[in-house]
Design a protein that fits this description.
Elements (H helix, E strand, L loop, with lengths): L2 E9 L4 E10 L9 H13 L3 H4 L2 E8 L1
Antiparallel strand pairs: 1-2, 1-3
């Protein structure tokens, strides 16, 4: 069963997370230590509208699909 990560855009003024989508982990073997960082990079590439916006995107808890 693939793992699904929630992707949020953080509003630092109001300190809230706004859900904008999900990222699905499609690898069968774990990525070890690079997993969280590589998923954040992928989420920023997909959901980031500008360079400044990419720094506001975070990946959060895991849940099963």
């Amino acid at each position: 069963m693939p793992k699904v990560y929630k992707v949020y855009r953080v509003d630092y003024r109001t300190k809230t997370k706004i859900p904008i989508g999900t990222i699905v982990e499609r690898r069968k073997s774990p990525r070890a230590n690079e997993n969280p960082l590589s998923l954040v990079k992928l989420a920023r590439k997909i959901y980031g509208e500008s360079v400044e916006d990419q720094f506001r995107i975070v990946v959060d808890d895991v849940y099963s699909a």
